[in-house]
Amino acid sequence: MAKKIVVIPGDGIGSEITDSAVEVLKKAAEKFSLALEYEYKDAGGTAYDKFGTPLPEDTLEACKAADGVLFGAVGGDKWDNVEPSLRPEKAILGLRKGLGLYANLRPVKVADALVEYSPLKQELVKGVDLVIVRELVGGIYFGEKCESEAYNGTERAWDLENYSIPEVQRIAKLAFETARIRRGKVTSVDKANVLATSRLWRRTVAQVAQDYQDVELNNLYVDNCAMQLAVRPTQFDVIVTGNLFGDILSDEAAVIGGSIGMMPSASIGELTSLYEPIHGSAPDIAGKGIANPVGTILSAAMLLRYSLNEEEAAQAIETAVDKALAEGWRTADLWHEGFKKADTKTMTQAVIANL
Ligand code: NAD
């Protein structure tokens, strides 16, 4: 039976980059005899304009019934004055909640051809290949909060951090499973020297590790991890951490790669998982046909890996991207003298030619 992929182009460059990723998926399907079918749905500002809501019920239901969701990006100046609860970005929160997206996976792999774009020294960046597994629906972002209260004759606010054992077990299992299909190493990041939630986190991760004797586990405090990402990023394979630390570390790790146009992500769900580039809808270049499609193409590869269990096809797409880059193809965001200039379609064809 064919696997169903719901494609949500969204706004801005969303349709250009998802078109590219679907073309690459079609070629991969042909090469590896995969039966894939695609269903297009609206979300974001485009959906608001058509239906008065950024996340139509019909879109959410289709995602729930799908084997995987490929998402472009949402948002743009056009909707800046829309009532906050109906803004395009609300579609993402609605999908997170509706699909139970409890973990965010952000790989950071620096292709040899791209080391020059990193803000770090080339010798530090060469060979970086890590993934950050961030807990997405718990911790301090979702804890009880108080905007303002009287305290000792002044005013204070507070946010409550809490994690339960099942929440930590679920994300830890995902991290160990991810390490198993990679290089077999998990670094759990916390602040166990100060925070009670971190001590429960560390203890629970160690218990889960008992079921994964083939995977190496080590622990780092978050301040040390932030430093290590800058001084020796090649030491990491899988980093697992909570919502707040993951938010910060995943952005730090993303800049190591040098271009946001290249970076994919996966949000793993209880029902369906969602795959999208880490960048936004880039309204400044929308409609010009010059967007870098690679982040979305690599997100499609992650969909094959994590939702469809098609590791070989996923790797083939990743290798094809590396080869296109090694041949010198660069979209406008990365192009400089000495390289071959590619618009979105040319870059897509260069990847397909290498598949
Ligand atoms: P952005 O990521 O859209 O753009 C930042 C800069 O990077 C721009 O100059 C843009 O042209 C460039 N860029 C981004 N992706 C690129 C690509 N694939 N190829 C070439 N250049 C690329 O961030 P922003 O400008 O802060 O936000 C624009 C809109 O996107 C806002 O409405 C924001 O809310 C929304 N947004 C959506 C998501 C999402 O859908 N997940 C994420 C972030 C921002």
Would you write up a description of this structure?
The model has no long low-confidence stretch (mean pLDDT 96). Helices cover 40% and strands 23% of the residues. The strands form 3 sheets. Strands 2-1-3-12-11-4-5-10-8-9 form a 10-stranded mixed β-sheet, with helices on both faces. The two termini are 24 Å apart. It has 355 residues and is α/β, with parallel strands linked by helices. It has 12 helices and 14 strands. It has 2 domains: 1-100 and 270-355, Isopropylmalate Dehydrogenase (3-Layer(aba) Sandwich), CATH 3.40.718.10; 111-258, Isopropylmalate Dehydrogenase (3-Layer(aba) Sandwich). The protein has helices at residues 14-31, 45-51, 57-65, 90-99, 122-125, 165-180, 196-209, 222-231, 243-256, 294-307, 311-326, 344-353, and strands spanning 3-10, 36-40, 68-73, 101-109, 129-135, 145-151, 154-159, 185-190, 216-221, 238-241, 264-269, 274-277, 329-331, 340-342. The structure holds nicotinamide-adenine-dinucleotide (NAD). Residues 73-76, 89, 92, 260-261, 276, 279-285, 291-292, 295, 333 line the site of nicotinamide-adenine-dinucleotide.
Classify the oligomer. single chain
Overall, the morphology is globular
End-to-end Cα distance: 24 Å
Mean pLDDT: 96
Q: Count up the domains.
A: 2
The CATH superfamily of the largest domain is identified as: Isopropylmalate Dehydrogenase
What ligand species are in this complex?
A: nicotinamide-adenine-dinucleotide
Helix content: 40-55%
Cα-atom Rg, whole angstroms?
20 Å
Instruction: Quickly name the level 1 CATH class of the largest domain.
Output: Alpha Beta
Say how many strands there are. 14
Q: Strand pairing plus helix content: what structural class?
A: alpha/beta
| CATH topology-level fold name of the largest domain | Isopropylmalate Dehydrogenase
Biggest sheet statistics: 10 strands, mixed
